[in-house]
Amino acid sequence: MPPTESAPRPLRSDAQRNRARILAAAEEIFAARGPSASTEDIARRADVAIGTVFRHFPTKAALVEAVFAGRLRAITEQAAALAGAPDPGEAFFAFFAEAVRQSTVKHTFVDAIDDADPAMVAVWAVVATAGADLRDAMDTLLVRAQRSGAVRPDITVGDVVALMIGTARALEQAGPDPATQDRLRSVVADGLRRH
Amino acid sequence: MPPTESAPRPLRSDAQRNRARILAAAEEIFAARGPSASTEDIARRADVAIGTVFRHFPTKAALVEAVFAGRLRAITEQAAALAGAPDPGEAFFAFFAEAVRQSTVKHTFVDAIDDADPAMVAVWAVVATAGADLRDAMDTLLVRAQRSGAVRPDITVGDVVALMIGTARALEQAGPDPATQDRLRSVVADGLRRH
Amino acid sequence: MPPTESAPRPLRSDAQRNRARILAAAEEIFAARGPSASTEDIARRADVAIGTVFRHFPTKAALVEAVFAGRLRAITEQAAALAGAPDPGEAFFAFFAEAVRQSTVKHTFVDAIDDADPAMVAVWAVVATAGADLRDAMDTLLVRAQRSGAVRPDITVGDVVALMIGTARALEQAGPDPATQDRLRSVVADGLRRH
Amino acid sequence: MPPTESAPRPLRSDAQRNRARILAAAEEIFAARGPSASTEDIARRADVAIGTVFRHFPTKAALVEAVFAGRLRAITEQAAALAGAPDPGEAFFAFFAEAVRQSTVKHTFVDAIDDADPAMVAVWAVVATAGADLRDAMDTLLVRAQRSGAVRPDITVGDVVALMIGTARALEQAGPDPATQDRLRSVVADGLRRH
DNA sequence: TATGAATGAGCCTTCATTCAT
DNA sequence: TATGAATGAAGGCTCATTCAT
């Protein structure tokens, strides 16, 4: 047992499994009912006692943050994977479509984070870090696409983020019909192109 | 001596005033802090007792719905006002911009309404009515704009509603800078145009 | 309803009764089991719902503080009542005996206040105010008694407070036998006299 | 091959070491933060796992008791060491001062022990034994001091115990200033002398 | 009708205790 | 024996809703 806890030892296998189950349960339940869903419900879905949830995530905010950051990281990886694609425009729009698809849940997490709640301030810190990585990856994609003439030159990364979230919201509103979802996505994508 | 027993008798004038104050307070507070703001806070802002709020709106959900329906009616009126404008395309896009502007609140109301709650059935009825009126008014605007060639012909009213909500969400995400808001709105509007 | 809540209107009679019942219940239960007793138990003893306790005392600390401050005020009144007594020494020792008697409960409140708990910081503020009044009243008593030669001149008010609390603790420890309690009290009183 | 099955077999040396570490940690932490400090914290300070604490002390109360009994034993030894001192009065007051000094901790342990809890019956047995030894040792000191005329003849051992605890409480209340602590101790000591 | 005190289910969190590893 | 993850009963507090005044 080292004097300082600097390197938290790897979790025991059963603990790892529980941690994963809790994250999965939280992802599902937050997606379905928003992050105001109760921790108790998440514990029930993960089939663990409430204390176990709090052992892994000392705070409800920490749990929300973990789920949210996980999602950001996944999207970031996809942006990175497309960074070297041959056609910059195609890469950008492929990323946009995929990111929107993955954000389409009943409640986007951003909605969930109530700035008024001081407990959520810490959440934003972590999210900001993960978000910065994502922004960097997106910036690469965006700049290349703009240089190639595929995207309006006045658009910023912040614009793209906002439009991704907004488009996800629109799809959520419109319902699951694939044709409709394609149509809506194409509207925003067209708007982003140089005209 | 009420005029007829069948219809809900008109409220006494002070009751009417209270109802209006409560709605106004709810609008402000829901817009600022989302629909999870407490009913107490709304009562306080309206300067009435909590019991009065529940006398006018038997349920918190009913209050949320009333605010939402009110907003729908306001937007409907604007659509109606633009129905006879000389330039159909201009009318449509003016409506779109205005509607988005008015929907830009921190938390959209739709998020607040829990479909699973049986107490919300009656609520949805009212909203549905208001929503149908809005759809009709929007349909007029949309069809004229499409006939004039200003808007993509494959777009439906549902698409426009979804995009309005999504765009409002994007603006909320992007923050208050007017130039940014214009840029984002123009992206979606451009995407809606025939290209 | 005044715009500013500066003067909280007098409570409705039933609310007053409940407030008094809660305070009485808290006094009993804190005295018997210490201030770590649960708010729920106090509510039960007062025969009100838990929410009612929190309506009257927004925090558990506020409840502890109210009980504690009430006790301080009672003792302060007694000190004030004895301030003009003809024999200063007699007055001082009568006060000391009475104050000790009233503090003899299984758990003194001071024990209760956990400095480590940040929620208790506010408690100390109020207590300090009530305590300052008490100190003033005690100071009068003490100085007169010292001038009359009845009490050791090097004793301070702080000493008297500490000895009161300590003596109460000793009596609590010794049990309820009156002769024993008198003996213990007389030991400390004798020690305070000029010898 | 244990010596006899009837007596609890001696602990393995590492277990002995752990037991001692836990007791030391508990002593420190209970002294600093009172007996409501969490068992986890004690385990952490002792650098053992929580399960180890519960293997050695089946209950938190048992741990509190062990610390308490240890303290009683330490004080008993001091009383015994002074039993044959040449000046009986000096010996008694030296013991009193030292015992008070050692009891000056933020929370007295007696407070922590809940008499109502049936799990505490066994605990009290041990404490009672240690307490009886202490009383015997103190009795020797006290009777000698009374015979020599240094202490009031009506005082009992129970009185002395109560006053020790009460004085410790007074010192705790008064704060750490040495002059103040001396003054308070001298007040009680003077009160105990024959006058 | 309006008032606002009372109710109590539910939420997040802590911690003594148990038990699989 | 030691470990530390899991358990689950409380505890403090909030807030939608009810009801006596």
Description:
The structure is a homotetramer of 195-residue chains. Chain A is mainly alpha-helical. The first copy, chain A, has 2 domains: 12-58, Homeodomain-like (Arc Repressor Mutant, subunit A, Orthogonal Bundle); 60-192, Tetracycline Repressor, domain 2 (Orthogonal Bundle). Chain A contains 9 helices and no strands. The longest helix of chain A has 27 residues, at 121-147. Chain A starts with 12 loop residues before the first helix and ends with a helix. Chains in contact: A-B, C-D. The A-B interface holds A 34, 36, 107, 110-111, 114, 116, 152, 154-156, 158-159, 161-163, 165-171, 173-174, 180, 183-184, 186-192, 195 and B 33-34, 36, 107-108, 110-111, 152, 154-156, 158-159, 161-163, 165-171, 173-174, 180, 183-184, 186-192, 195. Chain A binds a DNA duplex (21 and 21 nucleotides) through residues 11-15, 18, 38-40, 48-52, 54-56, 58-60.
Key terms:
disordered N terminus; 9 helices; mainly alpha; Arc Repressor Mutant, subunit A; 195 residues; DNA-binding; Tetracycline Repressor, domain 2; 2 domains; homotetramer
